[in-house]
Each structure stands twice: as C-alpha cells, then as structure tokens.
Write a structure and sequence with these properties.
3 domains; 6-stranded antiparallel β-sheet; globular
Length: 246
C-alpha cells in the first residue's frame, strides 16, 4: 500500500521552486535594465559629463560658487545648476547671469540639461572615428557666429575658412592661424532636434580656453548648422535650423 506523500515535503518543494522562479526572473531582467541604462549614455563621449549625467540630480544640486545679480525685477542669487537654469528662463536674468564674472563655473549646466533629455539617434552621420572629418567638411562656419575662429573668411564649409594649420582627430578639429588656435570637440552624439539623423553636441575652445557649447544639426542639404543650447532648452527654432539657407 502506497504511503501518502508528507505535507511538509510538498511545502518545501513548493518554496524551493518559488525561489528558483524568483532568481530566474531577476536574472533575466537585470541585464536588460543595465543594458538600457548603458545605451542611454552610450552617445556621451566626454567622461566627466557622462559621470554627471549618471548622477544628474546630484550634479544639478551640487554647490557651485555663489552668483548674485541685480535685474530690473529684483535681486537674485544661486549656487547650483538647478537654480542657475531656473533663473535663466527669464531673458533679463539670463543676461545678468551670463555676464557675471563667475558665469564660467556654470558653463556646463545648460549642456547637462540638454543631454539629460536627449535620445539615441536612429541614423549616424559617420562612425565615431570619422566625426572630426564630418564636422570639418560639413559645418557651415557662418552658423558659428560669435564662436567662429577669429580669422574665418566667408566660406561654405569650415574647411574653407583659411587656416594655416589643420589637425583632424576622431572627434576633434583643431585649426590655427598665426598664434591663435581654435578647437571644436564632439562631446556627444545624440538626438535632440528630432529623428532620424544624429545631432552633435560640441565644445568650442579658443587658445586652450573653453568658450562655449553648441549643437550641430543636419540641414536638408546635408550641411551642419550650429545652434546655441538655448534653442533646445526653450524648445523652438529646430525646423528653421534644419532648413537649407537661401
């Protein structure tokens, strides 16, 4: 005569199977989550910015040198990127903040905001190793405005502005004329203007000193148009930026 299977063994077996199911579920979901997080930052090419974006809330709240400005509508002060960006939403306050002697301590705040909301592009201009060459041959130098090389002559592309020395790296272009140098470095390959083609976030330096950030957007004729970060923070002007100039 068969003996009944003990109840406690049924319970133990059930618990064991439940534990195996939980472990299998966690094991299958964790890599996907980590992969998604890795993909989110894969286009951020500057290690310092990438680290700040991985800890975005802390980076925006971190204490920076105190800035105090007086405008027509009152006196304002801030000591963080979050406060700086909030005040920058008003034209008068933005002008006062950006002309402050300590404004350079907040130079990366806007680029952090833009990159935080950026997406992964559907199409790429080139391989990572070819970004420097793409910028050199496709960028319309007139769109650089105040961040253009001081010696730049009128030309359809950056390659034609009349530099004495040209050095092109994987994601960097260095131009020189006389004692002056001008550098553009691609710090992110992302989608901020809308699909499908990637936009390049770049840092411009003059004589080794950072001068500002821009976003390079593809026009309909294939050229690159440089836009200030404000366009993407305020949310306007993208369609115009992508249009081919007359």
């Amino acid at each position: 005569m068969d003996r009944p299977f003990p109840l406690y063994r049924v319970i133990i077996t059930g618990l064991f199977l439940l534990v195996l199911f939980v472990i299998a579920t966690l094991g299958s979901t964790a890599p996907a989550s980590e992969g998604a997080e890795e993909s989110k930052f894969s286009g951020i090419l500057d290690p310092d910015l990438r680290n700040k974006l991985e800890h975005y809330t802390q980076a925006m709240a971190a204490t920076r040198p105190l800035i105090e400005v007086e405008t027509a509508d009152g006196r304002y002060k801030t000591d963080s990127c979050a406060g700086f960006m909030a005040l920058s939403g008003h034209d008068g306050r933005a002008r006062a903040l950006n002309s402050h002697p300590l404004a350079s301590a907040y130079r990366d705040c806007a680029v952090l905001r833009v990159l935080h909301t950026a997406r992964e592009p559907e199409q790429h201009l080139s391989t990572l190793a070819g970004l420097g060459q793409a910028v050199f041959t496709r960028l319309d130098p007139a769109s650089l405005q105040s961040l253009a090389p001081a010696w730049a002559v009128k030309a359809a592309r950056l390659a034609g502005i009349g530099s004495d020395h040209v050095e092109i790296g994987d994601r960097r272009v260095i131009l020189a004329r006389g004692q002056s140098t001008w550098t553009m470095e691609v710090i992110a390959s992302v989608d901020v203007a809308g699909p499908p083609v990637e936009d390049l976030v770049v840092r411009v330096s003059r004589d080794g000193v950072a001068a500002g950030f821009l976003v390079l957007v593809s026009r309909t004729d294939g050229s690159l148009n440089a836009l200030p970060l404000d366009v993407f923070i305020m949310g306007g002007g993208v369609a115009m930026a992508q249009a081919t100039p007359p």
